[in-house]
Design goal:
77% of the residues lie in helices and 3% in strands. The protein is mainly alpha-helical. It has a single domain, classed as Rhopdopsin 7-helix transmembrane proteins (Up-down Bundle), CATH 1.20.1070. It has a three-stranded mixed β-sheet. Helix 1 runs antiparallel to helix 2 and helix 2 packs across helix 9.
């Protein structure tokens, strides 16, 4: 017989134990979540209703917005619940499900960012062949491959996670369930799990980052050969928003898992998780809507039509 008491739930400590501060944090993160939902749904709607935006670039942008909504929804609602509840528990199935969603969406978004970088490279460096190279079938295949790879990665890592034994303690010093946090609580060997995550990170994370960087090296090289100042400005304006997203996404995730030396490493991990799980999904629609004239025009048209319909 196993003498260990098996854990049936985990306790998420969240961000603070101060009741007054918890209410402040609840309001702040609720606003962030609502902004994330509104901004990303607005972008998806604008792209869907405007035929002029039915191009590969905006297809990828709408998928990115969908992933951002899902990414934020995988963590924020539970965090908000924790702020309001005295008992801050999460069951094992819920915890494992959250791990799977976080892994699936993080890998899928990373691969999608590399696809978007390749799309911009093709549009700028091979404009005459762009519609041939990035045809509807190729775009759909690339999106499906990114999402399927993310799903399989999350599924495999989560299934391996369920093979671990958890026999106490069951306190997670975080606002969500993440695999590294659960490894610390396991009373069985996590070597296989950590090796699989390391291999996934090396092949998929670093691989997609290299593709993205290689694409932008070619883009920058091509832009520098443009004689027209207006031409350079237009191309850089189109690509700068994507680069901003890439820096936010990869920078925070890599720092999160490299565990930089700090007096408060746990606080550093939580801060970085907040950035790539919650803040980045909120910033993506703001970055794209402010930097993209076509998206802003489409959003204004939708708003004006809605206002006219309400006044009629």
């Amino acid at each position: 017989m196993d003498n260990h008491t098996r854990v049936t739930e985990f306790i998420l400590l969240g961000l603070s134990r101060n009741p007054k501060l918890q209410m402040v944090l609840f309001v702040v993160f609720l606003l962030v979540y609502l902004i994330t939902l509104f901004g990303n749904v607005a972008i998806i709607t604008a792209i869907q209703v405007n035929p002029h935006l039915h191009t590969p670039m905006y297809l990828f942008l709408s998928i990115l917005a969908f992933l951002d909504v899902a990414f934020s929804s995988a963590t924020v609602p539970k965090m908000l619940e924790i702020f309001l509840r005295e008992r801050k528990s999460i069951s094992l199935p819920q915890c494992f499900t959250q791990v799977m969603f976080i892994m699936t969406l993080s890998v899928g978004e990373g691969l999608l960012l590399s696809v978007m970088a390749y799309d911009r490279y093709t549009a700028i460096c091979h404009p005459l062949r762009y519609l041939v190279i990035m045809n509807r079938q190729i775009c759909s295949t690339l999106v499906c491959a990114a999402l399927l790879t993310g799903f399989l990665t999350g599924l495999v890592n989560t299934l391996l996670l369920t093979t671990l034994d958890f026999c106490g303690p069951n306190v997670i010093h975080h606002f969500s369930c993440e695999a590294p946090q659960l490894f610390k609580l396991s009373c069985s060997s996590t070597f296989r799990n950590q090796m699989v995550i390391f291999i996934n990170g090396s092949l998929l994370g670093v691989g997609s980052l290299l593709i993205t960087l290689a694409s932008y090296v070619h883009i920058i090289s091509a832009v520098l050969r443009i004689r027209s100042t207006d031409g350079k400005s237009k191309v850089f304006s189109t690509c700068s928003s994507h680069l901003t997203v890439v820096v936010l996404y990869y920078g925070t995730i890599f720092f999160r898992y490299l565990k930089p030396t700090s007096k408060d490493p746990q606080e550093m991990e939580i801060a970085l998780s907040i950035i790539y799980c919650i803040v980045t999904p909120m910033f993506n629609p703001i970055i794209y809507s402010l930097r993209n004239q076509e998206v802003k025009t489409a959003l204004r048209n939708i708003l004006s039509r809605k206002l006219k319909s309400e006044t009629v």
